Fold this sequence. Notes:
The protein is of the alpha+beta class. 35% of the residues lie in helices and 24% in strands. It has 8 helices and 14 strands. Helix 2 (12-25) packs parallel to helix 4 (46-63), helix 4 (46-63) runs parallel beside helix 6 and helix 5 (68-78) packs antiparallel against helix 6.
Amino acid sequence: MTTSGELATGERARVAETLTRLALHDPDPKWLEDLLLHWLQSSEDVWLRGVAATGLGHVARIHRRLNCQRVIGPLLALRSDPEVGGKVEDALEDIGQFVRPETGEHASTRLGSQMRVLQKGDVMNNSEDDTHDELRAMNWDWIPGLRCGPFRFGKPLPSLPEIELARLEPSCEGADWHVYRVGDEEARVQVDDGTVTAVECVRSLSYLGSSELLGLSIPAVESLLGRVLVRAEHWGDDTAMYEAQSLGLTLWVEGGRVESTTVEAQEVPG
Length: 270
């Protein structure tokens, strides 16, 4: 039976075996992307959608090529589904590790570090120079809907050594969230109900671990992410705020360039 015939049977086991075999062995990543996206978005069988998500991860790992503008959104749309969420997160991790989006203005950052959480009132032990050295080594890679550096959305703060977090005083009375400063105001992490909900970055944010967003123009950002940005505010003098709600991204732009960013867990459509 031909490949198209095997897929046309609609039999779960046969379709899953065929999609997996193709993802692992077919040499055409563009054709595989189209095929797997079709099953990811169109299959009425949620288990087969999970197989398609895993297949996209295979394509990313084997071919190191995917159109991120096409695949990230559909994957994020399934991330909250308990039946396939784990497979979607694995696929996003593979895409973040192996696929390198390109733009003429991007800068590559693949740096590593670890962190230690300080409760409010703890003493910062590192010297200022040491703190800045560690912050320069921080890996601020962003996989939409999944994590920013070591901070995973929906998970507790990591408890790792080397870089310190200090809990800040709440900015408004009665706040039911906490904000932690990373080092010397390099970045801030918001925690709601014990889990990470947002990360603010002011020095670096590396899309999928490869393409630096800080310092880019809006057209350059759109060449990476697609036309998902909406200008939410404009204050004159080339100062504006842009949002990509489908990705959980907010950009603050000054002089035509991205000055800072906030990334958060992608909102699931109601």
